[in-house]
TrEMBL record:
Similarity field: Belongs to the binding-protein-dependent transport system permease family. CysTW subfamily.
Identification of the protein by name: ABC transporter permease
Keywords, in A-Z order: Cell membrane, Membrane, Transmembrane, Transmembrane helix, Transport
PROSITE patterns (alphabetical): ABC_TM1
Membrane topology of the entry: Multi-pass membrane protein
Membrane spanning stretches: 30-55, 215-234, 246-267, 297-316, 348-372, 392-415
Source species taxonomy: Bacteria, Pseudomonadati, Pseudomonadota, Betaproteobacteria, Burkholderiales
Residue span(s) of domain ABC transmembrane type-1: 209-415
Species whose genome carries this gene: Sphaerotilus microaerophilus
Main localization (coarse): membrane
Domain of life: Bacteria
Pfam families found in the cross-reference section: BPD_transp_1
UniProt xrefs under InterPro entries: MetI-like (IPR000515), MetI-like_sf (IPR035906)
Keyword Transmembrane helix set for record: yes
Amino acid sequence: MSTSAVTALPAVGSPELQRSLQRADRRRRLTAVGLTLPLLVFLLLTLLVPIGALLGRAIENPEVARALPRTGAALAGWDHKSEPSAAAFAAVAQDLGALAEGSDAGALARRLNSEVPGGRSLIMGTYRAVHGDWKDQPLTDAAAVRERMVTLDERWKELKYWQAIGKNAERWTPDYLLTSVDLRRGVGDGLFSGIERVDPDQRVFTGILLRTFEISLEVTLLALLLAYPLAYWLSTLSARQANVLMILVLVPFWTSILVRVAAWIVLLQREGLVNKALLSLSVIGQPLELLFNRTGVIISMTHILLPFMILPLYSVMKSVPPTYQRAAVSLGSTPWAAFWRVYVPQTYAGIGAGALLVFILAIGYYVTPALLGGPNDQMISYYIAQYTNVDVNWGMACALGAVLLVATLILYAVYRKMAKAELSLG
């Protein structure tokens, strides 16, 4: 009888078997990394890199440092309390003369004007003089340059403009982040010299942030109140019926937000369907003001974000066995008590996930408050768009975006901690 060569298998526990298992495990890990690598690269390029750029731009202050390098060096040892030396005046003139593009001077002027009103006209006036009447005059005689600048504009004698230049002469600054929470840096050397609150009449961003959280919380609670009974009802239906009704829940996902907001404008206006229906039912005596106020914003945002609350609740409720409630009732509990003490605690995960998702989406809303709200109903995203598109102040826009990012991370950390506590108790 002929025999064929058979490769002997490694013995159990032998070094050969261990090496073979290690190679197989290494191949499995490399395969997993290779499959997930495109997704990781995509997230890196579309999420992490933009977030890093946003955080960097929130503390970057390039306008003054790039446009006035000689001035920054001349003000390095200045006490910020007395008039700078004549050399600082000459340095400003030389720096402005070195700016070949008017756009660079405009960026510098806008940055200083955000610190001190009138800074734009002061810088641009001096820039035009340096490139015009003073073009053929030497700028090395510091005393003569100072006299020309003071003659051109008396404001060069005022300390507040020099303090603004000196404070922003460094490339990196905490001013944008401090301003976004109604704080400011005092006059002096160093990045953090005497941080203090701004004057009461200038404290706007704290109120805007609190308003953003207030509207988002109201929308989240209202969405939870509407979504919980609907998700519970869907979870009690058969799979076929639930799938058909779930399509109706998902229909808003297929409609543009602008279209839905426009529809709410038609519905909520004084002559709209809502007021006409309430008047015809004699519920009200005169049309209600439902547009361009907080009411319209909350109604529309709740309608738009409601599916994001229904889906997590439905997925959790579908996994809760209905026999638990029946068992509680058979043991003597009332149906109402069985629902609240047996069923609801098992849906806490869905409540937490839905509330977190809706709240995080709500704090970043822009279109709905801008179209349906009044001046006192705008959220922080409105001001981010204002600084980006109108004021062209990217530093301030990125600082406000960083505040939203930090708020989102804190909310997520709180949710994770609560979820872990619930698991440990369970």
